[in-house]
Amino acid sequence: MIEEKRIVLRNADLIDPEKIEDYLQAGGYQGLEKARSMSRPDLIAEIKKSNLRGRGGAAFNCGLKWSFVPADAPVSYVVCNFDEGEPGTYKDRIIVQKDPQSLLEGMAICGHAVNSKKGYIYCRGEYPYVVDLLNRAIDQARNKGVLGDFDIEVRMGGGAYVCGEETALIESIEGHRGEPRFKPPFPGVAGLWAQPTVVNNVETFANLPSIVINGAEWFAAIGAPNYPGTKVLTLTGDVANRVSIEVPTTATLREVIYDFGGGIKDGKRFKAVQVGGTSGGFIPESLLDTPIDFDSMRGIGATLGTGAVFVMDETRDIVDITTRIAKFFEHESCGKCNPCREGTFRAHEIMKKVNQGRASVQDIENLTILSQVMEKACLCGLGQAAPAPILTTLKHFYPEYQARLQLN
Amino acid sequence: MSTIQDIVLAFRDKPGGIIEAYHAVQKEYNYLPEETITVAASTFGVSEAQAYGVATFYSYLSVEKRGKYIIRMCESAPCHVAGAEALIKAFEAALGIVAGETTADGKFTLELTECVGQCQATPVITINNVPYVNMSPEQVPAVLALCQ
Ligand SMILES: Cc1cc2nc3c(=O)[nH]c(=O)nc-3n(C[C@H](O)[C@H](O)[C@H](O)COP(=O)(O)O)c2cc1C
Ligand code: FES
Q: Which residues bind [2Fe-2S] cluster (chain B) (predicted)?
């Protein structure tokens, strides 16, 4: 049986998150100290070599992203994406509630690498109690002087899922409607207030102190070679134990659901799992031996995404759940681009028809074409990923659709 | 209670501070009274249309008057399969209003929301941002009784 491996959650339940002294006692801020003794290019090269890939969903090489910030930029920003809007996900909340200083240290390490004096944490509006905790943690870090000349400010989101998209998030910090920007330019070149900006996820930052201390080779040797390290997962739905865990990325879905989740609740049988949040693909039993790393999940037409693991038992109605998900995307589409605004509306409309037993085979064909168009034509990842639950359930659970169709 | 003017002006020097100002007003008033938009527009140097556009983009902010207790009911997929629909119906029946409405005495507002990040114990509601987890229709009267 596979064991938990704690890097991000190394201090969880071992220290008092309200006390920076506990964090310092546990070796906190030694990573930052070591980072500051390194030259910026060396630090970036080290992070790049560790092959730490973004934990917010897109899995971009973290050091490579940092290297896009021009070395001579007079002003640059470090932004932490703590929007955590993907339904079924609460891992960033757990990380911050258990050990807020790890996030602050990670951001300060990034600040040194890209010569930034100012960081922002964009925390979702649903977590006002975590905003308060973060502000207390920042005050303590300031008072201890551990952050040096790097300062961090918390901004609160307003309940818009799209604001997790990095350029929409930047718009929101600037005080605008959270609509995604056209890329390029990418934030590394022109982000917050048109200055070079690094946007990383909470979990990405929280990995950094240990990587700097233990070195790139140490990290690269943990888990899957292409997506090394661990992943914090949140188990929801019909598993016996709805827990959050941190496992090496070589863990398989079956190990996650059965060894850590304790299998299906109430002695029922497994039907499906949706990984990565509500924009993730649905996965049938036959693919449960797939490792969770980003590339393996891609290989089966799914995604690791945020690491949310939503398990459904044999009694669950796949068409009904997919209809609910389609409503989510219609509601959360920001309306900036037509393929997403219209597409999510029509997709929900057709899914409702199927769910109510009023749809025909022609409707399913239209839904498939619409989904393929949206994947290609939508401006941002919201619209591009919205069809994934539909397409993967059509692929793996078509009989459930078929049973609902009108036969003429 | 501080005046809206005072609350908004406190954020004057914060770049992009309009959303922070809205949060602060809403914390005291439970919604954004119309004056907030005019004051924010002049404070942050944007048109009233833009200030209104920002306020109405975010589902967490409300330009409609709301009750003293704002009950938000999560209907995202993990809560949905855990019985969110029956829970929503139970709240609607207990309060005699439907989601989106406020009771006549101004005490309760019911809202639907997407995931609030407490999916380890579904279904979930929040009352004035405090999460209540593992909810069931049977618990509705007790939870409402907590709101005094
Ligand atoms: C609709 C949408 C929502 C997103 N939500 C989040 C989120 O809540 N948290 C997050 O870290 N990344 C989110 N992302 C990904 C970000 O755009 C970005 O890739 C990420 O913050 C980069 O950090 P990383 O490289 O450390 O993963 C979202 C993307 C899209 C398209
Ligand atoms: S799905 Fe309801 S709280 Fe996350």
A: 74, 79, 115, 119
pTM, entire model: 0.98
ipTM: 0.97
Q: What is the pLDDT of residues B35-59, one digit of tens each?
A: 999 999 999 999 999 999 999 999 9
Class of domain B69-145: alpha beta
A11, A146, A215, B8, B48 from A31: Cα distances, Å: 15, 11, 10, 40, 47
The domain spans of chain B are 4-57, 69-145
Q: Which residues of chain A does B120 touch, with a Cβ-Cβ cutoff of 8 Å?
A: 90, 234-236, 242-244
Q: Starting from the CA of residue A325, give the closest ligand.
A: 2
Q: Is B147 annotated as a binding residue?
A: no
Number of domains making up chain A: 3
- Of B79, B85, B88, B132, the one to substitute when testing ligand 2's pocket (max ligand atoms within 8 A of C-beta) is B79
Same-domain status, A39 and A183: yes
pLDDT per residue as tens digits for the range B69-98 = 999 999 999 999 999 999 999 999 999 999
